[in-house]
Amino acid sequence: MLLRKFILVNLLFVAAGALHTVIRVPVRRKANYDADGTKSLIWLYNKYKITPTRPGPFHRDSSGVLKKRQAAGASAEVNADDQLTDTFYTCPILIGTPAQQLEVTFDSGSADTWVWSSQLSPQTVDLASSRGSAYYDLAKSTSYTNLTGSTWSARYGDGSSASGTVVADVLKVGDITIENQAIEVANTLSYSFIIQTANEGILGLAFSRLNKVQPVPQRTPLDNMVAQKGIPGNQALFTCYLGSYKDVGDPDQGMSFFTFGQIDQDVVKATGKQISYTPVNNTKGFWQIDSEFITVNGNKTVLADNTAIVDTGTTLVVLEDKLVAEIYSTIPGARYDAQEGGWVFPASTPADKMPTVVLAVGQTEIIIEKEHLGFTPVKKTGMIYGGIQGRGNSKYNIFGDTFLKCVYAVFDAGNMRFGVVQRIDKTQNIAG
Ligand SMILES: *[C@@H]1O[C@H](CO)[C@@H](O)[C@H](O)[C@H]1NC(C)=O
Ligand SMILES: *[C@@H]1O[C@H](CO)[C@@H](O)[C@H](O)[C@H]1NC(C)=O
Ligand SMILES: *[C@@H]1O[C@H](CO)[C@@H](O)[C@H](O)[C@H]1NC(C)=O
């Protein structure tokens, strides 16, 4: 664990030392993660309060939370660890004076920035320390002030929850320092959060109107960067480049990073194309865009008024059920597996038997790489859980990591637009 911290500190240092280049906030991928397609889908359904319309091992508990039913009839929690491990992308941030480093998930699907803290129970703090996880120790920061009377609480996919009080402190993301950032300090975490080891908090990158601090909602780090002129108002943006473990053999080694305030032109140049932009509708607080057609092996279906939410904190892509059925109908041996609650296909499928699926970002066509049509193997079955699943009763699509791994993405809040350029990936590793 010490070694891990050492490497990350060095990454930050190296990045900060490279003057005149764009600062890349490195994204850490969790090694040896044990992904579970069904649980990722249930997490997504809960995050967006979606009811599935196809049969699956789903069941609602008395508080309305969707859970995975076990074969025996008992229901299993979808732990925060399952999802956070699947998403498995965390980034280093620095909080307080002197700076304390934490590993958090950058989540464009929420607007709260909260961290593990010294306000948690002594047992929880001890557990975190014993496994080498960091937490924000208020007593060790000389720069924080209490936002007295402010509270927050978040409820996640499994009905697990986190809540606490709020302070203002210095937050450093990449080379950008934010003064008085509202940091939501956890003082209670439900069990499933306590046992997860994937991250030490969340940094919300949706629009501030979704912020859940009471009584007065607080600004997100991106909004504060702009308000404090940490980044120019005409560059009120962040970018996201998510690699995959399937791409470590590629020229970019499956590298992943976020940038703030600047677009990484080296990445754009490598694609040989320009970034295409489409307007964002943030009425609901999300990065929501038009997505009015889909093409499967050249067969185009027009979807009038259809929209999609782009979410860096979600693993899968979900679309209208009948379109998902059309996609998998093109793969020999693919089927809807009611036990898994999702579409699966044979792991042995060669790339030339996989469909070319094009999703619309405004008028721009983005191809979902064949390797990302497969999310993760379904244990002991020879099948792969699909990276695209049904959206149930949702009126919009969700574009999570299955989509983001195929592009370089620009979240431009200043100009209220979303930009994408398809990344080049010549090698497709379907079985994972
Ligand atoms: C902030 O509030 C916490 C919890 O109520 C308290 O322990 C701490 O002393 C306060 N810190 C300051 C700087 O007022
Ligand atoms: C933006 O979204 C809201 C709510 O989802 C909708 O009522 C409104 O018509 C949308 N605006 C545009 C320009 O599409
Ligand atoms: C093309 O898409 C439509 C709409 O989803 C579907 O009904 C039709 O079967 C598809 N045609 C082919 C040749 O796949």
From TrEMBL:
Specify the signal sequence span.
Answer: 1-18
Read off the PROSITE patterns from this record.
ASP_PROTEASE, PEPTIDASE_A1
Q: Name one GO molecular function term.
A: aspartic-type endopeptidase activity
Q: What residues form the catalytic site here?
A: 107, 311
Chain ranges of the Peptidase A1 domain: 89-421
Q: Which CDD domains match?
A: Aspergillopepsin_like (cd06097)
* SUPFAM superfamilies referenced in this protein's UniProt entry, alphabetically: Acid proteases
The lineage's top-level taxon is Eukaryota
Identify the keywords attached in UniProt to this record, alphabetized: Aspartyl protease, Hydrolase, Protease, Signal
Q: Name one Pfam family in it.
A: Asp
What processes in GO biological process is this protein linked to? proteolysis
Q: Which family does it belong to?
A: Belongs to the peptidase A1 family.
The molecule here is called Peptidase A1 domain-containing protein
Q: Which organism is it from?
A: Cladophialophora yegresii CBS 114405
